[in-house]
Amino acid sequence: MSLSTEEKRKESGLAEGSRVIFQAFLIALVIRIVLFAPFTIPSGSMKATLLVGDYLFVSQYSYGYSRYSLPFSPPLFSGRIFGSAPERGDVVVFRLPKDDSADYIKRVIGLPGDRIQMVEGLLRINGVPVKRERATDFIDDENGGAERVRRWRETLPNGVTYETLDLQYNGFLDNTPEYVVPPGHYFMMGDNRDNSADSRVLSAVGYVPFENLIGRAQIIFFRSAAASLPGTSGVGHGQCAGAGCSRSSDETKTADQQRRTWSVDRQCVCRKCTRPSSPCGLRRASAT
């Protein structure tokens, strides 16, 4: 009798443990689909706003939900549910129109109907140059050296301000034809202007459909120590990337705080494991 009772207790304990694990899995899945998805930055196209190796959360609910909000992107429906249009200046993760297995992260520059053009490295929106002023040089130490890169502070027509990098004068994408953004599409650009495959390259990225947006970058929850300590490329460069966000000055944070939590509101994203099915649960939004 006692042996049978003990076996029943073990079976009951196993069943309870399995139930708890299953419930935790369901909760995590709901959070992943409905609220936030973790990403990591694999390349430097969004420098100096986002650095290689940054980990951040992307809000799935910011622009509503499409099939790309779901793991494996099953074609259960088209368009968006509870859709809300992005604002100019938001940093978003989106599914690449040319290859819907790849996630990219860029800044929203052009809205439907806008005319976008680069002239001698200066961004023009609807024929008007955006306000731009020189900032202190960015020190890029990603490849082991200490390269100085020209940095500019741009202000979009809606008041959103962010920093861009200018690797070379008269780069390949510093002079472009005028792009007219189609209805229901957005024009995306990386902040590292001479090192970003974005909507300026129609054959690779082009205009991004509203349906392809996954979410807006909200919080950098981890930045490598090398990027967070004073005197390196990360200090003072991480900043908000979304419209209307409030951020505290980097100088008021300890190195440990900088390493753990950064307010973003408009930045870019990526994920560490390449696919939603990866064991660690992180996906990469390419910043090429």
Features:
Umud Fragment, subunit A, 6-stranded mixed beta barrel, 3 helices, 4-stranded antiparallel sheet, single chain, 288 residues, alpha+beta
Topology:
Layout: H1 2-35, E1 36-40, E2 55-59, E3 91-95, E4 103-110, E5 115-119, E6 122-125, E7 128-129, E8 131-140, E9 147-155, E10 161-166, E11 179-180, E12 185-189, E13 208-209, E14 213-222, H2 225-228, H3 255-260, E15 262-267, E16 283-286
Radius of gyration: 21 Å
Element pattern in H and E? HEEEEEEEEEEEEEEHHEE
Architecture (CATH level 2) name: Ribbon
Q: Give the number of helices.
A: 3
DSSP strand tally = 16
Main sheet: strands, sense, barrel: 6 strands, mixed, barrel
Poorly predicted parts: 225-282
Could you give the order of strands across the largest sheet?
Answer: 1-2-14-3-4-16
The CATH C-level name is Mainly Beta
Please give the alpha-carbon distance between the first and last residues. 67 Å
The secondary structure category is alpha+beta
Helix content: 10-25%
CATH topology: Umud Fragment, subunit A
Q: What's the short story on this structure?
A:
With 288 residues, the protein is α+β, with helices and mostly antiparallel strands. The protein has helices at residues 2-35, 225-228, 255-260; strands spanning 36-40, 55-59, 91-95, 103-110, 115-119, 122-125, 128-129, 131-140, 147-155, 161-166, 179-180, 185-189, 208-209, 213-222, 262-267, 283-286. Strand 9 (147-155) and strand 10 form a beta hairpin.
